[in-house]
């Protein structure tokens, strides 16, 4: 399909909100989260919210933001149903890549449901490669008591780095860690920050870690687990302990992101975690052009 009318892409303005809310009203059965993040995305530092217009009417959006030095994230790609299959999302994504280059990043990533055919095609056309396939699971707090987690401190960093370097789970996650729905490389700095925030939970001793979880907070609320790995028995204890840990959060729930590894999925299923999304989430990346 081709669009009749003048197509252009520009920065979003506050007054585009209503038009965008209208065309994204039925993006998914439950609606869309765009109206909730609109103001934030408009003003988020080191980000760009773009709008594609046809004869000056907004008919699509995309957001790109620098999430860490050298790393950008794409999100919120939407095109109004009556303007789909005309190449607009491809154009928006290309423009996001150009904006990412201006931000000075070297890598750009995004995530999409494995079932999202148009986005998979855009990824292929623009040279993105899939670096991880993730599933997310969630459980209410409880029912077991504390697992007796220890919180490693900065002097333990080198033990943590060694553990993570050898972790098949982190390798299957493409070396990435999430903050809500955004993923970035698990760098020593990010690890340091989580250690300082007391968000790294450990079983065993720093020089002999039997299981480790890197946690955080963010969407959808409660305790967020960005990474978990360890020896099988210790990992079982850790997974149950995460549910106990969630009792201290509001809402009292724990959401975990896991690579699509059968053994890991099984552990969380046994501990009462339910899938939050049926489809795996595929994370893609591409190098930004200098
Ligand atoms: C995903 C979305 C943004 C695509 O917008 P679009 O403007 O129609 O995309 P494009 O026209 O640039 O098409 C991209 C490719 O997908 C193909 N395509 C588009 N819609 C398709 C569909 N429903 N089924 C199969 N292929 C499709 C196009 O033919 C094109 O393929 P090609 O490059 O091999 O020719 C739009 O469908 C949308 O808003 N969907 C709902 C929200 C969503 O899923 N957002 C992405 C979240 S990660």
Can you give a write-up of this model?
The protein has 290 residues and is α+β, with helices and mostly antiparallel strands. The protein has 2 domains: 7-105, Gcn5-related N-acetyltransferase (GNAT) (Aminopeptidase); 136-281, 3-Layer(aba) Sandwich (Aminopeptidase). 30% of the residues lie in helices and 34% in strands. The strands form 2 sheets. Strands 1, 2, 3, 4, 5, 6, 9, 10, 11, 12, 13 and 14 form a 12-stranded mixed beta sheet that branches. The protein has a two-stranded antiparallel sheet with strand order 7-8. The radius of gyration is 20 Å and the shape is elongated. The mean pLDDT is 95. The chain binds coenzyme A. Coenzyme A (COA) is lined by residues 27, 77-79, 84-90, 112, 116-119, 121-122, 125.
CATH top level class name of the largest domain: Alpha Beta
Number of domains: 2
Assign the CATH architecture of the largest domain.
3-Layer(aba) Sandwich
- Helix and strand composition category: alpha+beta
Query: What fold name goes in the CATH topology slot of the largest domain?
Result: Aminopeptidase
What is the name of the CATH superfamily of the largest domain?
Gcn5-related N-acetyltransferase (GNAT)
- Indicate the radius of gyration in whole angstroms: 20 Å
- Give the biggest sheet: 12 strands, mixed
